[in-house]
Amino acid sequence: MDWSGLPLDVLIEIAVRLTVADWLSFGDVCTAWKQAAETASSSGLRPKQEPPWLMLAGGGADLAVADFMSLSDGRRRSIALPKPAIQKRAWFGSANGWLVTVDDECALHLLNPITGAQLPLPSISTMGFFQVLPRNESNKVFRVVFDRRSFQALHFPGLDHSYLPASPEELPADDFLVTFVRRAVPWWDPLTGDYFVLMIHGPSNKLAFARERDTKWVVLPSKYHYNDAILYRGHFYTVTDCGLVQVWEPDGATFRPRLAAPKHAGIHDFTSYPYLRKYLAESPDGRLMIIWRERSSVRDSSESEEEEEEEKEDDEHDDPMDNDAQGYNSPHRSYNEDCVQTLEPADPTVLFRVFVLDERHGGSQWTEVDDLGGATLFIGYNSAVFFPNDRTPGLLADCIYFTEDHYVYSWRRKHKPRDMGVFDMKTSMVKPIHLFSDEHYKSWPPPIWITPCI
Length: 454
Description:
This protein is α+β, with helices and mostly antiparallel strands. 16% of the residues lie in helices and 33% in strands.
C-alpha cells in the first residue's frame, strides 16, 4: 500500500492522535505527510496532550544539547538547541512549552526547546538599577553593576536610603545570577506570535514584565516579596511570601494589583513562612489553588528562641534588603563567600499541603484538600500544571511530581543530588523519580518540567 497516497484529511486525523515527538517524525516521512502536518498546524491543530517532559542538561560533551525524559513512554530524547549553548544558561521558568533562560553574559531568551524557536528578551540593563558591563581585556567575565539606592527608591519611595552605599556595586556575572534568578512565567500566542513574560527577580523577589512590543523590562513597584505567579482567567496572579494573593489588572501601560483572595496563612506561624515555598495553580475544575512545600528545616526544633525572635524582627522590617525571604541580599554579605564557597546541608522536601479557593457569595475561603481528584501535579521552576490521570503508563494519580526550584540553594550544592521526587497525597510519603542516571541527577542547571508543544 502506498501510504503517501492517503487523502490529506485522513493524514491529518492520524497526525492529531500522535504525541509531540511522533508528530515531528511524522512530517519527515515524505512530502505528503509533511504537508499534512503543516496544514494541521496552520489550522490550529496540535498533537495530543501528554505529561510534561523533564528537561536536563545533556549527558554528553556537546554543550548545545539538552536531554528530555518522558513519563508517558520512559524514553530519553536529546535535542540540539540554538546558541547560546543551553548548558551555559540557567533556565528559571516554563509554561505552555516555552522556557525563559539567562546565559553567562546575562542575556535573557524565550525558548521553545522542542522546536528550537527562540526570541531575545530585553536586557536586564533596561530595569533602571542593573547595568551589564561588557567583557574587556582585563576582565574575562561579564560584570554587572547594581545601584542599590535606585532599587530601594523605586520600591520604597519616601524612605531614607542614605545608609546604603552611594556608589553602585560591581558583581561578577556568576555572582549576580545567583542573586538575580528567581522564576519567570512565559505566555505565548501561537496565532499572533505575541508573548508576555512576568518575572520574579532578585534581590528581594520583585516583579517585572516584558511584552513582544517592549524594548525594556517594566518594573512593578511593590513592598512585597513574591514566591510565584500564574496566568489565571486571563490575568496574572501572584502570591507573596506571607500568603497574600494578588491579581494584576491593566492600568495604562502597566498593571496595578488588587487583592484576589483572603490572605492565606495556612497552619504555620509567620515566624516560619520564609522557609516554605508557595505556588499557585489552576485546579482541573478551574479553581485557584495554593500549594505549600515544606522542607525538612521547617521541622528543625533545634533553633534557639533568640534566633526565632531575630527572624521575626527581620520579617517585620521595611527594608527589602534585610527582609529578603532567602536572606541572601544583605548589604553586609560577601557574594563570593555566600553564594559560591558555602555548601549548605541537604534540606529535602518532606511535605506538601494543597488548598483550594472556595468562592462563595458570603465570602471566599481557602479549604485544604487531601487528594487531587485523581490528577497529577507537576511543580518546580515551571508554572504548576495538572495532568489528568487517564491510565497513562507510569504516571501516579493524586501525586505531586516536584523538582528543585531554589536557585541559590541549587548553586551552593551545584553538583550534589537534587531535591526531586514524587509526593503521594494519600500517604504523605515522598518517593524517588526513577527516570535517569546519577549523572543527570546531579546535573546543572537543575531539571525543569516542560510541557512539550509545537
